[in-house]
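Quick one: examine this chain and its backbone structure tokens and tell me how the chain folds. Here goes:
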Amino acid sequence: MSDNRKPAAPDPHDFLDVDGGLEETERDVRDAVRDFARKELTPHVADWFEAGTLPDPRGLAKAFGDLGVLGMHLEGYGCGGSSAVAYGLACRELEAVDSGLRSFVSVQGSLAMTAIHKYGSEEQKNTWLPRMAAGDAIGCFGLTEPDSGSDPGSMRTRARKEGSDWVLNGTKMWITNGSVADVAVVWATTEDGVRGFVVPTGTPGFSANVIHRKLSLRASITSELALEEVRLPAGALLPESRGLGSPLSCLNEARYGIVWGAAGAARACYEAALDYASNREQFGKPLAGFQLSQRKFADMVVDVNHAAMTSLHLGRLKDQGRAHHNHVSFGKFANVAAAQRVASTARGLHGANGITLEYPVMRHMVNLETVATYEGTEDVHALSLGQAVTGISAFR
């Protein structure tokens, strides 16, 4: 039986109606985070970016806690227990404002809280997770080092046993929230391999120095951690952490958030360019009316919708327990590249105005340089995909 009803014209802001596939609870999360982000974050983010910091990280943590996005995908201990798709939508709406703000939430929930939730003792979980979920305590995640980025197995941070205590020495680099954190999850090499430790940042010998002069991810706090004879009790060890696979599994959670976040950044740049080109007149007509401009919008709307579809499909796989870490690599590799293309094209459509903080595109464009690097560089994810399809590792 034929249906003669005429389909509705595509919505330029969701061309393939990807969000039409969301469930009611997922739409509620999307709308709540989008509303918060646009009212509480968007009016200030350009100033924060220009200043190169977050002026009130504790207030922001508490606001995120009240919103319910900190560790929202974890079960129990004051966490929300939401679906992977709902968490992804929160990441998308936050990064549509700025990558640094999504990173704040991601590092707290997908890295520090996830490490404690997956590998910690009951005492560690009960001590930290409810406070972190509420935004009353800030966490950071210490894996990357000055000489150990893509190859974390070469880390130099060491933990030695002295009686029942552990003593840590080493340096961690590019640590989001490091200088404002109450607790750091630090990974170190021991006689038994790589293990994780819960380190209260007030412990003697622990220090964190803010990294200045960043040209990307400026609306965030990035630090270097130094551990000099940091003595910890036996209970500081994450008892279930075993080997490098433990921190890498946390990174996979963070990468999943990036898949959605990059889709949000791409959407924001596309929408900014569409609004600008529709209202900017040159040679007697809107910039959007020229053939060259329309070809650029065609390319952008394809990238934006491909990224949205990839995010949602990966989220569904994750909620079904079917998302392999190579699937996440696929998502990060594809969506970040798509977002970079969209941001670059959108910046060009803005002309000279595109380099100012009056518009979001240049800010997203430079932020995406960092997004392409952290939680696995583009090259590392390309090699992961290459290994997945050929069965041959090119890493060593």
The first strand starts at residue 139 and ends at 142. The chain has ten helices and nine strands.
